[in-house]
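Field reference: sequence -> structure
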Amino acid sequence: MITIRRVGPRDEELLLAWANDPVTRAASFHPDPIDAATHAAWLRGRLTSPTTRLFIGLDGEVPVGHVRLEGQPNGRVEVAISVAAGARGRGIGQTLLAAGLDAGRADQDLAARAFIARIRPDNRASVALFSGAGFGRVAESVCNGVPCLVYERPA
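Structure field:
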């Protein structure tokens, strides 16, 4: 059974390793590897942000991925997800996404009215994941100089 828990400072190394996984970097809007100092500063900022929620997905006691929720204006909450390399291909992304959306809906401080995802057009796994979770494509855009598709679903 997959559960989620909030990310804490002790998760820094794990999140950095996942962030620098080659498949994750290829699907990212920042494809270059991330150095430890940059990642540490990013994580500190996210953990202290009043509009960010970070979760680790667990299969029993084993970390299998993470979900990030970023509150935006007008009740929109951006969702990002990453599945650990050893956990891919087992449907864990669906469970992680569902748990993240449930957490976002339950978080009254986020006041989620809609969830959005920004996805590289060549990231077929994420397109399938978010489409299968009821997200519809609402726009094409550019994210950090890279083409992206914007998907959205009501909260």
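Note: The chain has five helices and seven strands.
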